[in-house]
Amino acid sequence: MCRNKLVSIIVPVYNSEKYVDKCINSILNQTYKNIELILIDDGSIDNSGHLCDVYANVDRRVKVIHMKNSGVSSARNKGIEAARGKFIQFVDSDDYIEKNMVETLVHEINNNVDIVLCGYKRLTKDNNRIINAKNSNLYKQVSITKEMFLNQFDNFYKNQYINYLWNKLYFSSIIKKNGIEFDNSIDWGEDLMFNLEYLGYCNNITIIDKLLYNYINYNNDSITSKFNSELYNNQQNMYKKVREFLKSNNKYLGENKQVVERKFTDAIVMCLSNLFYKNSNYNKIEIINKISEIIEDDVVREDLKYFADGSISKKMIGKLIGHKSLKSIYYYFQITDYIRDIISFLSRLLIKICRAFKIRII
């Protein structure tokens, strides 16, 4: 049995002074006590590092590692190196976990199960007020072989059970023995790539039908609203890895393939939209050149038919890409970016009105 074995919980911390208290307390107050909390201060310039040290001084289960800012992947790799537990769990510093999360995950893992997954809540906050709440799609509790899991890969991938780190419990030995680590060269999709590599060494998987993790999305600080010059390359690399993983397991077919390629075309639309964000450092000529690079890409052109599986706007974008209509694509996204700004302004105005009149949004 694996009960009472040490669980190493790795939390990368970067400028999280507003949230890290709640995160740390949710971990230290777990019903399962045999944990070590590894806080990786990734060169924070706010009070986060000091707060981590305060907790280490009052609870011997807390270990703090201060490092020069190197990104979340480097921080997690540093945490893996330091982990002494039989199991490893990852938590983000601006999220928090349910009081029984660790106990529930450990209870379900054993020598015949290589990884445990659970459900989660996605909470959108604006100025510390919850403005939207959404639960992950729940599956009935089940233990399945990797073969069965891969046969349902499309559903797990579509419902984002594979993509994240924080709704899982891993064996430390599988990670360390096989040298599984996070890719420092990317800043989007590194979680998924880590999970795919780990799953390659799994035989059996357990899924828990409980919502144990609280993922917080701050409305004014979303990664999808910030310009990312490497977004397109990251997405290409991520989906290449997904395809390779499925092909190596003879599962890149049927609905698995359909879902992956539909998601890839969603990502292409996101990458085009990313070029027009206000904090983009591209001028008009550079944007047009980037659009050209995307729509001339052989992989994108091979996936043109998957643009038809989506909204009217996605279908339209697919048609424009098919015709290589550079200027039409440019002006389409310029207009939609303007409309998005108006909608964002109206949303913020609505929230202010609701607060002023004490109207609950949810």
Keywords:
single chain, alpha/beta, 2 domains, 10-stranded mixed β-sheet, globular
Question: Explain this structure to me?
Answer:
- The protein is α/β, with parallel strands linked by helices and 362 residues long.
- It has two domains: 215 residues, Spore Coat Polysaccharide Biosynthesis Protein SpsA, Chain A (Alpha-Beta Complex), CATH 3.90.550.10; 124 residues, no CATH class.
- The chain is 46% helix and 19% strand.
- It contains 14 helices and ten strands.
- Strands 1, 2, 3, 4, 5, 6, 7, 8, 9 and 10 form a ten-stranded mixed beta sheet that branches.
- Strand 6 and strand 7 form a beta hairpin.
- Helix 8 packs parallel to helix 9 and helix 11 packs across helix 14.
- The chain is globular, with a radius of gyration of 22 Å.
- The mean pLDDT is 89.
Domain tally: 2
* Broad CATH class of the largest domain: Alpha Beta
CATH architecture level-2 label of the largest domain:
Alpha-Beta Complex
Helical content band: 40-55%
User: SSE order in H/E notation?
Assistant: EHEHEHEEHEEEHHEHHEHHHHHH
Number of helices: 14
Radius of gyration: 22 Å
Instruction: Provide the residue-averaged pLDDT.
Output: 89
Largest sheet: 10 strands, mixed
For the record, give the distance between the C-alpha atoms at the N and C termini, rounded to a whole number.
43 Å
For CATH, the homologous superfamily of the largest domain is named as Spore Coat Polysaccharide Biosynthesis Protein SpsA, Chain A
Q: Number of DSSP strands?
A: 10
Shape: globular
